[in-house]
Design brief:
Elements (H helix, E strand, L loop, with lengths): L15 E2 L6 E2 L4 H19 L2 H4 L6 H26 L4 H18 L18
Antiparallel strand pairs: 1-2
Helix pairs in contact: 1-3, 1-4
């Protein structure tokens, strides 16, 4: 008989299912892989929200519009995957989702790593 891990409240533990039936399950190390995957997804969402990426197609409004639409669709799809992963109600998954989003925001949108010229008004430069 197959063991299913269905929780309806937040819990802490590595015996859970994230996104796919039986994954990561109780296999050693796969829970860590699942956490790294969720971290990467949330980090990627923040990277895709970076304005510099969506301004690549400025020379051709039509191509730029299609590119921005594709980036938006990818960002939305990834956000839904993260939402589904969070519905595992696992505290570890929640923590790495928040951590990945925070790390992505820090690197791409917080202006901490973007040097400003003297007198330049602060704006999103990612």
């Amino acid at each position: 008989m197959e063991t299913r891990y269905l929780h309806m409240t937040f819990f802490w533990g590595r015996r859970t299912e994230v996104l796919f039936r039986g994954w990561p399950g109780a296999r050693g190390g796969m829970y860590a892989v699942a956490l790294v995957f969720v971290f990467f997804l949330t980090f990627l969402i923040q990277m895709l929200s970076c304005r510099r990426l969506t301004e690549l197609g400025r020379r051709s409004p039509l191509l730029g519009g299609f590119f921005r639409t594709a980036v938006h669709a990818l960002q939305t799809g990834l956000a839904y995957l993260v939402m589904l992963a969070l519905m595992s109600y696992n505290v570890g998954v929640l923590m790495v989702a928040i951590g990945g989003s925070a790390a992505g925001f820090l690197l791409f949108q917080s202006l901490v790593f973007w040097a400003r010229r003297p007198g330049e008004v602060s704006s999103t430069k990612c």
